[in-house]
Amino acid sequence: MKVTVVGAGAVGASCAEYIAIKNFASEVVVLDIKEGFAEGKAMDLMQTASLNGFDTKITGVTNDYSKTAGSDVAIITSGIPRKPGMTREELIGINAGIVKTVSSNLIEHSPNVILIVVSNPMDTMTYLVHKTTDLPKNRIIGMGGALDSARFKYRLAEALEAPISDVDGMVIGGHSDTGMVPLTAHATRNSIKVSEFLSEDRLAQVSEDTKVGGATLTKLLGTSAWYAPGAAVSSMVQAIACDQKKMFPCSAFLEGEYGLNDICIGVPVLLGKNGIEKIVKIDLADAEKAKMKESAEGVRKTNSLLAL
Ligand SMILES: NC(=O)c1ccc[n+]([C@@H]2O[C@H](COP(=O)([O-])OP(=O)(O)OC[C@H]3O[C@@H](n4cnc5c(N)ncnc54)[C@H](O)[C@@H]3O)[C@@H](O)[C@H]2O)c1
Ligand SMILES: O=C(O)C[C@H](O)C(=O)O
């Protein structure tokens, strides 16, 4: 399995590191536009190989897409991150141009590639790739829900004073401060609904903390997060590489599922060797359906800013 990571910044390097450490890919190519930057990150990471015990070969290149040829999976992390006080949507002006060029270059050299879009505003960037390339919809996947669900589980475990491994839960909807839909009614601790242990108010707080998870870290760090985003991407790539048919909420192109059309937004999917193998339909409560509808309206508003 050959994986390309475009963008050798904070998130790109974290993706490359976790993919290598998990040891399922033979090769990871990191590409950046900044001269020598990807080469430096790749060399630094390769010098952890004997310490961390992996055999994945990581190489870095400056904007040379011929080195990415034949990639099975490519991850797009190129673009600017937000600063404290900004929304992800404000990044569209710069990132749309970058994502459009990068996806076209990747596909030119790897026509069978499965693309994972990370750059923000992620749902709109995923939609942009759908609208500007010929890739089938199962091979364009937006990463947001896997990360948001990990943050949801972190906040649930904190509220329950439980180990995170006791907790399960999922976040669907748009990857934005207001658009995420944490499925609190479905969340469990050891198969028991968390509502048995937590008050409505505490659950509402968990939900709010989850939705502003990225903004909270951006305020603390001065830029957006990278460890959990890299870990989330690496789990998705592993599911594809190992044909796991594992369920993740991902931004997928919808044609009627969840009552939505012509939009990319977070829904549960099964990831395997073909990318999105299936969009999983779950019964939502009326309140969750209403939140999903509102979330889709927010994503559509951002999509309308694209010059398509
Ligand atoms: N979807 C998510 O859950 C999620 C999570 C974290 C970050 N993000 C997003 O990922 C993006 C990257 O974040 P970061 O913290 O790694 O930023 P960063 O600034 O650390 O890295 C971005 C890298 O992209 C490179 N780049 C810019 N234009 C390029 C081009 N045309 N070709 C190749 N490389 C190019 C830059 O040189 C830089 O090294 C941001 O848009 C951020 O908002 C999304
Ligand atoms: O918060 C951001 O801007 C980056 C990313 O989308 C995240 O959720 O960490």
Automatic annotation (TrEMBL):
GO terms for molecular function: L-malate dehydrogenase (NAD+) activity. The keyword Transport does not apply. InterPro entries: L-lactate/malate_DH (IPR001557), Lactate/malate_DH_C (IPR022383), Lactate/malate_DH_N (IPR001236), Lactate_DH/Glyco_Ohase_4_C (IPR015955), Malate_DH_type3 (IPR011275), NAD(P)-bd_dom_sf (IPR036291). The active site is at H175 (proton acceptor). The keyword Oxidoreductase applies. NAD(+) binds at G7, A8, G9, A10, V11, G12, D32, N95, V118, S119, N120. Residues 147-300 form the Lactate/malate dehydrogenase C-terminal domain. Keywords: NAD, Oxidoreductase, Tricarboxylic acid cycle. Its EC number is 1.1.1.37. It catalyses: (S)-malate + NAD(+) = oxaloacetate + NADH + H(+). Substrate binds at R82, R88, N120, R151. Residues 1-142 form the Lactate/malate dehydrogenase N-terminal domain. Belongs to the LDH/MDH superfamily. MDH type 3 family. NCBIfam families: MalateDH_bact, PRK06223.1. Catalyzes the reversible oxidation of malate to oxaloacetate. This is Malate dehydrogenase. It comes from Arenibacter arenosicollis. The lineage of its organism: Bacteria, Pseudomonadati, Bacteroidota, Flavobacteriia, Flavobacteriales.
